[in-house]
């Protein structure tokens, strides 16, 4: 058997085809789905929860739910939004358990001033791309991580889904179980909140970490 050809064949299968194969008892299909989504899902959870042991638990629970849903899962339904929905819900449950003795109040958000989407994307991109030879960029990434970690859960989640995972409004609506109009308004609030904290953190330093 040509192993390389077999790997290429499996790799070219759609999620729906793999799910169908798994429903027919083919365990290799489930392993392929895990390999396909483990990295983006783990990265999402690491940003969302920012606590390693909780990330590991939620990560395993998410794929366990997929594993046990083989008979009920609709193969015509896109898998990626479904997986992120499960992960987001489990992450929120975990965060609530961690924070049930403390409450976070947003208060009144001050106007962040004129904020361009390009500016936000440029800042947030530093979270993932931190060349070791660029100290200032690494410092920017550290500030981004700190601000995101301190954001209220609902704002942190939608910011991550929009800017890091690049989900559409429709998919974010499905993942968070909120109307598209609420997605748009919450994302706007999240951007304003982030920029307010960003400007406060960088007041008196460089100009938003740009070179």
Percent helix among the residues? Answer: 55-70%
Q: Which H/E pattern describes the elements?
A: HHHHHHHHHH
Mean pLDDT: 77
Radius of gyration: 19 Å
Strand content: under 5%
Question: What is the number of beta strands?
Answer: 0
Q: Mind telling me the CATH superfamily name of the largest domain?
A: RNA polymerase sigma factor, region 2, helix turn helix motif
- Uncertain runs with pLDDT below 50, 5 residues or more? 1-5, 101-117, 129-133, 207-211
Task: Say what the CATH topology of the largest domain is.
Answer: Rna Polymerase Sigma Factor, Chain: A
Under the CATH scheme, which class of the largest domain? Mainly Alpha
How many distinct helices? Answer: 10
Judging by the overall fold, what is the CATH architecture of the largest domain? Orthogonal Bundle
Structural class: mainly alpha
Estimate the global geometry from the Cα principal axes: elongated
Overall tally of structural domains: 2
User: Biggest β-sheet: count, sense, barrel?
Assistant: none
